[in-house]
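Lecture notes, unit on protein representations.

Consider one protein chain, 347 amino acids long.
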Amino acid sequence: MSTTRGTSLNLPNRFDAQRLEAFDDGWDQPEPEFPLPQVPTEFYEDRSKSIISTNDSPDVPMEASINPYRGCEHGCAYCYARPSHEYLGFNSAIDFESKIMVKKQAAELLRARFEKNWKPQTIMLSGNTDCYQPAERHFKITRSLLEVLLEFRNPVAIVTKNALVTRDIDILSELATLGLVHVVLSVTTLDLELSRQLEPRTATPERKLAAIKKLTEAGIPVGVLNAPIIPGLNDLEMPRILEAAKANGASMASYQIVRLSYGLRDIFKDWLEQHRPLEAAKVLKRIEMVRGGALTDSRFGARMNGEGAYADYIKQQFRVHVTKYGLNCDIPELRTDLFRIPGTLFG
């Protein structure tokens, strides 16, 4: 696994009333003889009493979602979920990708919820942070949730940037046979160097495409999410990403444009200065072009795909190539009529 991080910043939490800042007190400090150690990943038990989150956003196709982890070791420099880590008392920069909350009781909480007046509906895994991030290899929380979802026959939609999803093909295949699952691989770029810099601990582009193929061959419906599109950085890759996804078996596609809210603006600007200094001004200006002169837009209907002439250009490019490669833009309808409570009269 990569030892790099998406950011080196250690920003203050925007909710803290007090802040500590380093300053030069005149004492010369020699450079360390050896490089400073890499920031280790720390795991904390999340003792939440419920596991399903709900939303009423018209921009999100599912009302219910589960995030097995809070924080994400993938370390994507553009991740919209970073600011949410501040609600836990951490920061949205290095803490987000190195201090991970683990919901060890997730499967038990889901089982209990299903047994108590649950209205069968599709649950999305990874509404905020990735359910197949590196921690999943050890904790296997996502796999335990899939086992419960299959046991109760409740539909699930999965969005991930990690090829680890193929580990669970045995369960996903059973769900697919019943019409209860849809998987989406999020592909940001096909450029390996850019991927390693921008999203250092996700699966490589090649492995994401291989995962699409492997899932498809197992009879599991798979789509591709071209996200985030960062105007001036990776937007010209859309046609190649859609073509490659189709060639590997994807049946549907969608896209989202980057939005930089709160501390994420500083994190992404710092990333640009480190990795794309000559393109930084252009990229930020083009993001502003699709965000009404700002770097973010929280309005429903606009926040996912932006507005303005450049956003319209991206939309038209998407429509043209989705048609060209025969990709569907609609998320498949999953069955809810098979839900059961095992061990009961209706199970």
